[in-house]
Structure formats: C-alpha cells, structure tokens
Amino acid sequence: MQTILTNGATANRLNMVVLAEGYTSNEFSKFFLDATNAVDALLSCQPFQEYRSYCNAFAIFVPSNESGSDHPSWPSYRDTYFNSSYDLDDRIITIPTDNLGQGKVDALVQTFVPACGLAILLVNDGIAGGSDGNGKTAIVATGYYEPYLETNNLAHETGHVLAGLGDEYTDPNPGYPDVEEPNTIHNTNSVVTTDSIKWRAWISTNTPIPTKPPDSYPSVIGLFEGAHYHTNGWYRPKLNCMMRSTSDPSLVPFCEVCSEALVLAIYQKVRPIESFAPTNASLSISSAQPVTFSLALLQPATHNISVQWFTNGAVLNGVTSPAFTLSPQSLGNGSNWVSALVKDNTPLVRTDPTNLLSQTVTWTVNVNLPQLRLDSPVWLAGGQFAFRVTGNAPQDFVIQASTNLTSWTSLTTNSLVGGEFHYTNSATAGFPRRHFRAVTPP
C-alpha cells in the first residue's frame, strides 16, 4: 500500500482506497501513477474539490497474471486478480460478488484501511467502462483510448457508491429495481405538486412542475421527466447532470441536488471538529484564572465553518472564533455548561434533516471559586476590634489591612472552620483608621 493523499487521521476523513485490477507485477509503477491521477481527477470535480481537505487516499497494489480485463463478446479473456469482465455494448464492468471478486476487495480494505469510506477498483484496460460494484465498490477502467471517460465514470460511479445516487438514463433496463434514490422520483399520478418533490428547496417559484418544455430550462432545478431507465413516470432534478451524461465532468458536473447528497454523504463520515481543548469534558475550577476553550476545525476550500459559543445555553454575542477565553467569575459557583456549536453553512446544501453539517461540543464546568464576606463587626473590651469571615475558601485566605485602600499589609493567614473564622485585632488605641479585607491566593 502507498499513500496518495493524507490530510489527517483516518478516523475523521473520507478514506479513499484505490485497488489494482489487471496490472501485472511489471506494472507496479504504472498503477500508482494511474491511481494518483484518478484521485486527482475525482477531487477536481465538485463538490469533492471543495472538501478535498476532508479526504485521504491510498493505493493497494495486487498483481494480476495478465493485463487488462475480460471481454467475453470478442472473445478475450485475461487472468486477473479480481476477475473483472465487461463488453463494448454496455461497458458495465462486473466482478464476482463472492470471494473471487468483491470478497477480495473487502478483505484487502479491511486489512490495510479498515476505516475505508470509498473503495475504487481501477481496471487497467483501454476500453472505458465502469459500475458501482453492486453498490459497494466504484469500478472504473483507465480507458486510455477515451481518457475523459475515466474521470466521468469514476465521478459517476462514486455518486452511486458514496451517496446512493441513481442513474438518470432513459434507456430501458428491464428488471432494474424500481427504487427511488435521492435524485429520482417515481410518480404514476399525472398530478405533481412542488410540495411533494424531495428536492423542492432547490426549485424556484416560477419553475413549472413538471418542467416543460425541458430545453427552455437548461440550468434550473425542476422536475424533468425521464430517469431510472424510464422515459415516463420517473423524474430527475435537472436537464443534465453527471448522473445522466457521459460528457466531460467540467462541462456537465453534478447537479445541485446530487452535489447536496454527496456533501451530506461526506459528512456522514467526517465531523467538522477535528479536536478540542480542554480534552476533558468535565472541569473543576477553583481559581479565578481565565480558562481557554478551543476548537481545531476542518475547513473547506473556499468558505469557513461558523462557530458560536454558549454558556449555560445562552448565546455569547460576538463570540464566534475557534478559541474562547472564559472568566470563571462570569459563571456562578456550582455546575455550569460551556458549549460550542459548529456549522458548515455551505450553499451546496439546502436541506439537512439530521443536522449532519452541525456539531456541538459541551464541557461541564464545576466552579468552586472562593467567596468571602466580612460581617459582624464589634468593639471588644480593651479597645480591640473583631469581625467574622464567612464563605468559601478552599485554599485558605489572608486578612489584610490598609489605611488608604491602595497599599495593603498582610496580617494573618487562616482557614475557615465550619464556613467561618473570627478575627480579633490588637488594641486600636492610637492606631489610624484602617480598612480590612480577606483575599484568597491567585
């Protein structure tokens, strides 16, 4: 295994793993170059480009005895590790679902990158093709005779595997399960309203539903008939999209609805808060020294994650930086809460029903600050003066005196017993007026 791209710990990244199919032992270097180019191409497509920092990528090389892939209709067969096969008529690459194919993918990924979020099987064959590997593996041929198709096929198949997106083709595919995906709707009723459309948040009020004539709305989200291998009764969000087209991805990217589903899929595997401090979620504070709370955030390419701090559920207005310094005196003694709400307000997502783009960290802060009070002053016989100190002083306290409230002299260090202490000074005859206070160590 070699690392192609590393942006952080695998525990909090979308970890892509590219595996070699149809590469002989002499094509070791070629595979790692092809794998690197494939990952770079995928991460150049939106929304992956925006969230490149959320991704790691690795390549696993397993040699095949022969180069290429099976093409039964030619006929042409190759002895390869994962037993891939496809033909020119449909270009759908398949591998066995058992331990001769998908089982080998699963075993390698589990051994080398257990936290894999996207497995990619790269087939060393000049004829472009691909599939979603029964929803588990994005399979794509290098397709060096039609190189742009490799990027298109890889992005398209990744849409299937990572976000469960559906094909938006209208060519018949008998027997294909009639199950809706995030980007398809099945409707046998001729009446369709905007409120019934799952991507309605993206539809403008002046867009006709269904969206006809289609060619009059080439760039908007609406309800376009034809999807899921049906010309009628199935609908897609946009006139054209990566899940429908075989064009260059730079010309026909993922539509807004598919892009939103991919961003949500990334956030199912990655949390925006990389780490936080203090790492202990429960703190005990018995000093007035300020305490700093901080977050290390994953930042997308062109916009920043937002932060809002709270104490005891109340918004701290204007406190929106990744670090926040708290004065313990601002909280009352006892149990308190400090929390940070982090959110990705990306325009790529309009509907986030389970709040995947948000994360909250909360600390329990038990404050036990010294609180001292001087009371019960009294004159005693012989000209002495006495008073009582009450409150809370876990680290003892010092009684100080001053004649001007500026310069203070320490008189004695004491401890509270039963929450109080009685102080008596020496005879006051002939002494100037004095002020007293009780202070705790810093």
Fold and architecture overview:
- The protein has 442 residues and is α+β, with helices and mostly antiparallel strands.
- The chain has four domains: 2-164, 3-Layer(aba) Sandwich (Collagenase (Catalytic Domain)), CATH 3.40.390; 166-246, no CATH class; 271-367, Immunoglobulins (Immunoglobulin-like), CATH 2.60.40; 371-439, Sandwich (Immunoglobulin-like), CATH 2.60.40.
- Helix content is 13%, strand content 30%.
- The chain has four helices and 23 strands.
- It is elongated, with a radius of gyration of 34 Å.
Outline of this structure?
13% of the residues lie in helices and 30% in strands.
What keywords describe this structure?
Immunoglobulin-like, alpha+beta, 6-stranded mixed β-sheet, Collagenase (Catalytic Domain), 442 residues, 4 domains, 5-stranded mixed β-sheet
Mean pLDDT score: 93
By oligomeric state, this entry counts as single chain
- CA-to-CA gap between the ends? 55 Å
CATH superfamily of the largest domain: Collagenase (Catalytic Domain)
Broad shape: elongated
The CATH class designation of the largest domain is Alpha Beta
Which class do the helix and strand fractions yield?
Answer: alpha+beta
Would you spell out the secondary-structure blueprint of this structure?
Layout: E1 2-5, E2 14-21, H1 28-42, E3 55-60, H2 102-112, E4 116-123, E5 130-131, E6 137-141, H3 147-163, E7 185-186, E8 224-227, E9 230-236, H4 256-269, E10 273-277, E11 282-285, E12 291-297, E13 306-311, E14 314-315, E15 323-326, E16 334-343, E17 358-367, E18 371-379, E19 385-392, E20 397-402, E21 409-414, E22 420-424, E23 435-439
